[in-house]
Amino acid sequence: MFLENASQKGWIEVICGSMFSGKTEELIRRLKRARYANQKVEIFKPRIDVRYSEEEVVSHDASAIRSTPVDSAQNILLMTSDVDVVGIDEAQFFDESIVDVCRRLANNGVRYRTHFVKAILDTNTGEVLSETQPEVMDIIEGNGNTFELVRQGMKQVPSTISGKISSYPIAIACKTGTPQRSETYASGKHYLNAIMIAYLPADDPEIAIGITVEYGGYGARTGDLVVDIANAYFAMKDGTLEVDPYVNPALSADPSDDTTGAADTTDTAGAVQDETQPEQGSAD
């Protein structure tokens, strides 16, 4: 990600592409060009990204540029007040604030305070004793049709993913991510995390979802998880949500039944392992 004149009125350039397509190399090239033009440049990277260097952004072809490792995306705001150009490498490695970013996209730049309790009810009467009201934390002003263009792109992503998300009856807007881990399973072959952010319904959002599966492979693999969470949300909303007894045998209809599917649980775990862990020497 490349932010020109971030402290003033400027623009954002996102460098994207498949793995080994030269994204980091292009980021470094643009940042060095800005320095040659005597602009003040700051480069940031997630502190956990130590694959090639702890303090430098390094491309696959060994191009490098000095950077500032940060623990959270929020820290970047503290160090860019007088900067002309801000560079951010491996943005997908940052913390759960990415969900707030997704919510801002869905709400035209408005970020609401995150809360876990919607309402407190009287257990005897069902009366609402207190209810959490939406609280606006800040607003990002869009430039022209910026937000609409981003939303249109996110709405098209599900159609490119195989599985339940591509045919879900409620429109979903989402974006995948596939960050590399430092560990390798073969020479030059890194394990991958699977990431997806999503919100739905796409045209009138009610829920934002952020998923990270360590060693999960490609981000598109999390599409079915988004659908499962969405199904649970709408079922909870209309009162039809049922707890799967296999999640916790103690919740089954017959607690004395010791045939709650321990073997099935083992098989499921094995299936997940087979799907998410590439075979030694394979390209996954």
Characterise the protein shown here.
- This protein is an alpha+beta fold and 284 residues long.
- It has 6 helices and 16 strands.
- The strands form 6 sheets. It has a 5-stranded mixed sheet with strand order 2-1-7-3-6.
- The radius of gyration is 22 Å and the shape is globular.
- Mean pLDDT is 75; it is low at 1-9 and 250-284.
Q: Determine the oligomeric state from the structure.
A: single chain
N-end to C-end Cα span: 27 Å
Number of strand elements: 16
Structural class per helix/strand content?
Answer: alpha+beta
Helix fraction by DSSP (H/I, runs of at least 4):
25-40%
Strand and helix order = EEHEEEEHEHEEEEHEEEEEHH
Rg (CA only): 22 Å
Percentage beta strand: 15-25%
Shape: globular
Continuous helix count = 6
